[in-house]
Structures are given as structure tokens and as C-alpha cells.
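Lab notebook, design round three. We kept the backbone fixed and only want residue identities now. Task for the bench partner: fill in a sequence for the structure below.
Input C-alpha cells:
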């Protein structure tokens, strides 16, 4: 599903964010990318989102060469990706229902589609009873669940998460990771950027470790179980 071949990224400041990156992610995989600040993790996600372009190398997503993608196709391409951020990025003046519905309104979904899809998604993330609440009325873990519902509402093939538990305590962090695990089991490819070794150790999935823009290890571990 995702292939990066000899990918390098050097910013105008001279910062070499990525050096000779080679990664293949199969359809339906759950992959952690771990590393300290400045290791290149977030730059990698930005390349997949086409927010930045590589200095050299090739990126293939679902048989599409991102380097040859015309600019007018980028919005349509991004709809096939779901993105979760550390800071939630919810609309503070809209309730839970409208925050999730917003992602469908952006793509021009019908009112009927929104009425059918949003309640289903809120039930999946455990927030069906709080659809009228505003973000400031929710806990951090609940706000992240809203962000996950919003990222999934358009049924993306790939879900990208940049430090999705960075602002959460230990309990809420594991609850969010369990939810992402369930989403993955339903067929969505999940890539999570994190610095939390505790989460990675408990989830026991494939782990790509980065340091100073390079991949230093790529390990596949045993599957996660809720009894862990």
C-alpha cells in the first residue's frame, strides 16, 4: 500500500530531516514509527500527506506515484487518508456532532449521508450520548475520540496519527490505542508516530525506529491482545 524508496528531505534551512528512507507498508498493517524529537517522524507523515515534497526519492501510495501527481488531484488523494493530531484540532464553536460532520461537508456529502454516518461513527468511538457536547465539555481522551471519528468518517484506506496520545494520561492513552487497534482489525492501515516506548511495548506491533533522519531498526512483534 505504501512504498518509500531512497527518500531524502532537506529543508531550506539546511536541516536534513530524512536520509535514504526505504519503507514498505502492506495493506492492513499497524505500524509504529518511534524516535526522539527531531528524528524525522513527523516529516515522514507530511510527505505522505503531500504537505511537503521530498528532495529526492520516490513515494508510492496505492500504486500512485506522489511525485507525479498533478496538484489538482491532491485534495482527492487526501480524502483517502485519515489524519489524527496530538492537539485534536477540534472546532471549539461546534458540538461533537458538527465536528465530525464537518469532514463530510468539506467533500460535499449529502445531508442524508451525514445523518446516517455521523451517529454510526460516534457510536463506534463511544460518544453517542455526547453528540451535543462542545469540545471544552469533554475530557482529553474524549476529544481525541472525536478527532478519530472525524478522521474516519470518510472511510479512509490509511489512518495516520501524529502523537495521538501525547496530551493524554496513561489510562486514556491505552484506551485510544485499543480503539486504533479495533479500527485496524476492521481493515484500515494504521501508522502511528509516537515517542512512547511504553505504548509500543504493550501493543506489540511492527515498530520502525528512527534517529537523526534515518531508520535504525524495523521490527515485527507479536500481536496485541486486550488481556495484556
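Proposed sequence:
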Amino acid at each position: 500500500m505504501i512504498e518509500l524508496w531512497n527518500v531524502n528531505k532537506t529543508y531550506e534551512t539546511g536541516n536534513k530531516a530524512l536520509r535514504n528512507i526505504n519503507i514498505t507498508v502492506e495493506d492492513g498493517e499497524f505500524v509504529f514509527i518511534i524516535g526522539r524529537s527531531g528524528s524525522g517522524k513527523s516529516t515522514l507523515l507530511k510527505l505522505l500527506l503531500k504537505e511537503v515534497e521530498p528532495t529526492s526519492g520516490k513515494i508510492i501510495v496505492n500504486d500512485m506515484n506522489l511525485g507525479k501527481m498533478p496538484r489538482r488531484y491532491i485534495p482527492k488523494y487526501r480524502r483517502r487518508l485519515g489524519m489524527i493530531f496530538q492537539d485534536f484540532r477540534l472546532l471549539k464553536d461546534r458540538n461533537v456532532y458538527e465536528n465530525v460532520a464537518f469532514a463530510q461537508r468539506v467533500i460535499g456529502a449529502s445531508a442524508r449521508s451525514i445523518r446516517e454516518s455521523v451517529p454510526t461513527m460516534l457510536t463506534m468511538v463511544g460518544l453517542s450520548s455526547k453528540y451535543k457536547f462542545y469540545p471544552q465539555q469533554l475530557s482529553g481522551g474524549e476529544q481525541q475520540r472525536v478527532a478519530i471519528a472525524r478522521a474516519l468518517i470518510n472511510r479512509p484506506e490509511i489512518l495516520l496519527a501524529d502523537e495521538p496520545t501525547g496530551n493524554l494520561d496513561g489510562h486514556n492513552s491505552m484506551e485510544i490505542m485499543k480503539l486504533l487497534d479495533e479500527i485496524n482489525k476492521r481493515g484500515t492501515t494504521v501508522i502511528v508516530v509516537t515517542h512512547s516506548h511504553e505504548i509500543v511495548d504493550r501493543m506489540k506491533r511492527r515498530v520502525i525506529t528512527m534517529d537523526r533522519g534515518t531508520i535504525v531498526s524495523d521490527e515485527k512483534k507479536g500481536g496485541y491482545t486486550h488481556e495484556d
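Keep this in mind before ordering anything: Residues 1-79+157-164+186-221 form a domain with the Rossmann fold fold (CATH 3.40.50.300).
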